[in-house]
Design goal:
Length: about 180
Amino acid sequence: MHIEDTASTKNWIAVTTHTNSEELALTNIERQGFIGYCPKLLKTRRHARKTEEVKRPLFPGYIFVLIDTAHDQWRPIEYSKGVRSIVKFGNRLSYLPKGLMETIIERESSCGYILPETKNLDLKVGQKMRVTTDSVFEGIIGTILSVESKDRIWILLDLLNRKVKTEISASSLCKLN
């Protein structure tokens, strides 16, 4: 994905979707002329003695939409098929920090998914960790919820004044001193 113009009036917003409806919501939002994005990871799925690599959302239940705050009518997004709601504070839109989505987009491979990295850490559930500079969530502190593998760690981050459960690579974490 390549975004040409991200002028000061253009901002990314987070949109929550119904369960497993990220693609449906994205399609319907793009039909309305908005630029939408759903970053994905390549994950290994094991089922009935078969193993396959599948694309899964980096943030399950969320997509992101680039809107021109000076000109776009964003309310139709809320009523799009697959959309649960727009992340807001009261009646005001909540914008993502400048550069966050562009950093995620830059980390996307030519195959259309975010590439994981590996690093050896002694990770434990409940441990507080800081997201390192080689990640899009640089500096954010989170709590480990579960460790499924070195490339599959569920962490609870404080993002947009909400607790957000997300999957992150071990290489993007460092212990707090």
